[in-house]
């Protein structure tokens, strides 16, 4: 077991960002086969919910179901928070470029710090603010120049960012009251339920489309396992250690990882502008990590 829990927290959140950064790649493969946003999300969260339940039930440790109120809180965390953020974002990128959406969406760490300060009285440290500003500059540079942004697309991305902010802040408190497997199981069940209800209640004029070929379902399964179950579990495990402010700053590495994924899997071109932006983000994380590690060592030595 690592002596420095902060380092473990950074590693977990980085792993989470790596998984989430691959989501657009997996989703795009599914879209190419004829699926649409809701069709992909129904399959994604259903597989994730079933998988998490199996993992929870088969784990060697005896786990107790939480109190009904906490069950409901965790379920709503997925049904409103996770599903809302995913739906708004993946709908937006059908109308605007991913680069523009990333620039707008990654105002979310600012939301986390400010709302956490106002609502939960978690005043950010000076080095957290400095790292956040540097990371935001890097995100803006990395994502590139504004392209085909639309008013509707911008509103959807902002709604996704704001929804994810409350999802992160609420999750940081709810997951302190239960174990990781149980918490993630309820979150995934809530998100899956939302999209099943969407499919059942929407009129036929708003179709839900699934992939046409069996091989394309593999992309959604990969999205569910790697970019949903693994990423969400790592996120909340890291969140328990680092807290929402530091976690949101570390998450800003995701656009950089997103670009790397695009180069490796989608044949996208790497530019000098993206390299400069990546330096700002990585530099912010190194600076933040050094301060957090030193702070933890100082506590351990007292």
Q: Please, could you describe this protein's structure?
A:
The protein is mainly alpha-helical and 302 residues long. The protein has one domain. Helices cover 78% and strands 0% of the residues. The protein is built from 13 helices and no strands. The chain has helices at 5-21, 23-32, 37-58, 68-92, 98-105, 108-120, 126-143, 151-174, 180-201, 214-242, 244-250, 254-265, 272-301.
Overall body shape = globular
Number of strands: 0
Give, in order, the helices and strands. Answer: HHHHHHHHHHHHH
Low-confidence stretches: none
- Output mean pLDDT: 80
| Strand composition percent | under 5%
Helix content: over 70%
Largest sheet composition: none
Radius of gyration: 19 Å
Give a quick set of tags describing it.
302 residues, mainly alpha
Give the arrangement of secondary structure elements:
Blueprint: H1 5-21, H2 23-32, H3 37-58, H4 68-92, H5 98-105, H6 108-120, H7 126-143, H8 151-174, H9 180-201, H10 214-242, H11 244-250, H12 254-265, H13 272-301
Summarize the structure.
With 302 residues, the chain is mostly helical. Helices cover 78% and strands 0% of the residues.
